[in-house]
Amino acid sequence: xxxxxxxxxxxxxxxxxxxxxxxxxxxxxxxxxxxxxxxxxxxxxxxxxxxxxxxxxxxxxxxxxxxxxxxxxxxxxxxxxxxxxxxxxxxxxxxxxxxxxxxxxxxxx
Length: 109
Known about the structure:
Elements lengths: L8 E8 L3 E3 L2 E18 L2 E18 L5 E5 L3 H33 L1
Antiparallel strand pairs: 1-3, 2-3, 3-4, 4-5
């Protein structure tokens, strides 16, 4: 067996699940698979490793009359973290502004 060089690969795919029939409607889940995959080896051995993230993105709903709708899925954890980050940024900016204002007032005396 000859030595092989590592082969890192990025993965970003949209996966569509099997359709599920519920009360005359057909529901089909859609997810996004992201990650990295790598492998390599030499005469003594080889190996492979991967890191993946699978997140639900949307649900496709097909009505009995042939109509189709897509329902986007929200990620409440991501929305909460974004709100926390915005609040932290606002507190930081306000603190810096008050600090600058206090220095200016002290110099003016």
